[in-house]
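input
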Amino acid sequence: MAAASVAGPAANVFPFRDFRAAPDPVLEAGPVAHGPLPVPLVLDNGSFQARAGWACPGPDPGPEPRLQFRAVCARGRGGARGGAGPQVGNALGSLEPLRWMLRSPFDRNVPVNLELQELLLDYSFQHLGVSSQGCVDHPIVLTEAVCNPLYSRQMMSELLFECYGIPKVAYGIDSLFSFYHNKPKNLTSSGLIISSGYQCTHILPILEGRLDAKNCKRINLGGSQAAGYLQRLLQLKYPGHLAAITLSRMEEILHEHSYIAEDYVEELQKWRCPDYYENNVHKMQLPFSSKLLGSTLTSEEKQERRQQQLRRLQELNARRREEKLQLDQERLDRLLYVQELLEDGQMDQFHKALIELNMDSPEELQSYIQKLSSAVEQAKQKILQAEVNLEVDVVDSKPETPDLEQLEPSLEDVESINDFEPLFSEETPEVEKPVTTVQPVFNLAAYHQLFVGTERIRAPEIIFQPSLIGEEQAGIAETLQYILDRYPKDVQEMLVQNVFLTGGNMMYPGMKVRIEKELLEMRPFQSSFQVQLASNPVLDAWYGARDWALDHLEDSEVWITRKEYEEKGGEYFKEHCASNIYVPIRLPKQASRSSEAPASGKGSGASGGGAGE
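output
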């Protein structure tokens, strides 16, 4: 996200860039992916954007993930009948024309539609250049949601092992991977992670390097809700531009023009000052066409347009005459054929034809033939005349000069008006002033501008005040206070010494200062705390997963192999410093058959005794 403030009213007009993604090329894996040991594939499976790349060993493992694309797909019409297949990620280009067709495999931040998830994985493996036949012969490090449901992990493991045939997999939380990447080696492994993404915001306490899942809290607000709130605010403010205020443009405003106020109420008071508003409002320029119909045409262009219209009209009339002439000629030929029947003496066929023509006598037939012949001949003459006069100049519209006799009455009227001129006062020219006043030119560019003022702070403020959008949830400050109160004071002091901010929704300017202000208000007097913002809140999750994969490449205690998947089930995984806590499924105990009472003499009463144990 770019800096938020721009000084001066002349510098705060920003055009919408309307980002259109370019299709990803199919990359070559290269020799680095084919070493003595299989190179891990790192997949940051985010609900807003997916990132994929190789965890290449060596001093330079790579600057960034090789693939970054929106985690959505759209199936074209007729795709199931052999038409256009599904398109994924950057292959979609601009999302707004396809917004109604977009589908995501996520419910909030949890993947639930594994059919769509398979499309995202196919796209990633294909464009990364995975060349193994029939399987993906690389270990995979995959991010998942905090406290991911067992069913979701089971379906994901089944997809990876059964469909792609991977050798092993490791699951981890994106924010913990980001914490792993930014944590210096000599720093304590305890801390408090505040992670805000596209759908959710999490506050995760870390004790001695492990997630304290019992005290984790989630706020169901993120960048998606902020973009929707900003869209509603601007659509209410500018109802004339309802269709132009799209979600993609609102995300652009959030990413590049919004900021977090250190004190929300005090910042709103600043916006009441006209000078502050004029210097800090961002005017977002909507696209528009500056060429109005007929406003920039010269007299020659207008004359040429009239000639073209006249020529098209003449051609249209000529075509209609030809069609009508053809129909009349066919009907005339039919009538002449009936007349020949009369001349040949075929009376039965002649009377039958008269009945079909709805005529009563030969005289009526003869009269109709004469009229139709005359009409056909006239039509032929008109067509010939139109072909001769097709190139006709437009008649000059200047009025003819009137005769001298017609001018004499008007001159007498002018002289009679001059007799009454002294009766008017000197103030009467004010009546004529509006006639000669030049009307101001309508500024079309200014009409297509969105003035984004307090909306710059109102939209991102919802993660601190969910009540702004009617959500009955606690904000970040209240949730942070609630979590700290669940620990002893010495543990609280240890946690606040390492407050770590990560996630794409933490990139607003002023976010770190706001968190420090909230901590200062809730902590005891003269107590200390440290707040750290991730070096790259968006990509550090992928970087951390890559670092973790290289550090634990040969550690069998953190990877789930195919054999373990088949023995222990799809929901099983191994814990590590960046993972969730494994909670196995607890099945109810069943009574053994040896403890059942004999059925003789008791009937059905003995058979149901052990069912409730």
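quick obs: Residues 2-8, 393-401, 420-433, 595-613 have pLDDT under 50 and may be disordered.
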